[in-house]
Amino acid sequence: MFVAQLGPANAAAFQALRLRGLAECPTAFASSYEEECDIPIAKVAERLAPRVDGAILGAFKQHELVGVVGLQRETPRKLSHKATLWGMYVAVDARKNGVGRALVSHALAYADSQLQVRYVNLGVNALNVAALSLYEGHGFARIGFEPCFMLVDGEPQDEIHMALALEHAVLRQSKGL
Ligand SMILES: CC(C)(COP(=O)(O)OP(=O)(O)OC[C@H]1O[C@@H](n2cnc3c(N)ncnc32)[C@H](O)[C@@H]1OP(=O)(O)O)[C@@H](O)C(=O)NCCC(=O)NCCS
Prior knowledge:
By secondary structure, this protein is of the alpha+beta class. The chain is built from 6 helices and 7 strands.
């Protein structure tokens, strides 16, 4: 398995996996299958074009895209020391095999070396035990709880906001923790 930054050539594979995730786990994402299923591949390719303020990373197994995660640096100057990790998804048959962990590790390295931010923030559905455990394993701390962050089929979904100071992430790596 390897992790690489996706580009326009990966648009069709990325869109297929993204739509699988949105359809399979509507409570894990703020976006929805219905909002994204008609986006033309050309638009998806534009989203994957190289840029300075973010990237989408993909995990490949035997050259098949099995996992994705996005990173986006905040635009306002006073917030540009932070990035948001979004869109984490691993295909069902590739799970529990270290793919999610590898994607988060690469995303944090990218945030540090390419985006040069100090903090990475993210949001997780409060009932998503697997994702909470994945992020806490990388040192993310729970910094907030938002009741009724979103409604899915009319059902309120609570969100846990998490943050990681990258200097702590680097320390954790250098100590081999
Ligand atoms: C959350 C998700 C990305 C984990 O991916 P994965 O490739 O299975 O994760 P890994 O195999 O790398 O596991 C890394 C850690 O995640 C946690 N984890 C993964 N699956 C778990 C599960 N079913 N229950 C509890 N913890 C779990 C564990 O801490 C694990 O470490 P361990 O193996 O030492 O116990 C995957 O389950 C997924 O795509 N879920 C649906 C979409 C989603 O919830 N996205 C997150 C949106 S915030």
